[in-house]
What does this fold into?
Amino acid sequence: MLVLPFKFFVLFLLTLVLSFAGGPIRGDLLQTTEPPSLEFSSESLTLRAEAAPFAPTASEQEKQLQSRLQSRQTQPPAAPTINISHRYYPISGSSAAQLRRQMTQQGPFEPSEGRRYDARTEWLVQWSYRYNRASNRCSVDSLATKVDVTITYPQWTPSSAAPRSLVSEWQRYMTALQNHEDGHKDNGIAAGRDILYALKQLPAYPSCQALDNAANVASQTIIRRYNQRDLDYDHTTNHGSSQGAVFPAYSMASQ
It folds into this structure.
């Protein structure tokens, strides 16, 4: 394969965090997608995650990556570009049961689960770099990473008929819901930060193909780690229930 100097390429990885299914005591559910293979932006060539002849094996590189990430405790953290946006879907009602029903009917839909959820967090990590060729070796140059986080929430505007107790309960719930979703958001940001740091630490390789393979292995290792962290986070918090993200609360369920 002919590799031109200073050629851009970008890898997109997407993790979906689906949150808060309908029902007063049901928590959120996490669904992840496997990251795609590394692709050049202007070619159909696909670089797989297997190590090239001059690159460390996946297991060896994962050990090296873990060691580098642990050693960065005394170094300034890498800083990706972070964009956070919010989406809202309107709901209506003047009782807890009506609001619960509206969220169940209108919340974000997940086709693989065949159901809707109260809230949804998506984080997307994107990175790019140029090749730096010197002394017959290839290294990373002009590295950049970007994390896009999109969180979808329900939006309720109380009417004059809404009881004050319901308004207070809704505010309590939204605070708890946002707190839980922030945990998933933080995982996405941390994944972008670790990818930036890991790619900065890659040494020069005998070929740019070997460099690409090493970058792919390192990045997918980090994505898998943060996918698991999201799963562990939901397990530990019972999908946000232990953080108070349940609507309606048991005391409001009959109202």
Observations:
- The two ends are 67 Å apart (CA to CA).
- The chain has a mean pLDDT of 75.
- Residues 66 and 212 are 19 Å apart (CA to CA).
- Helices lie at 58-71, 96-106, 164-200, 208-237.
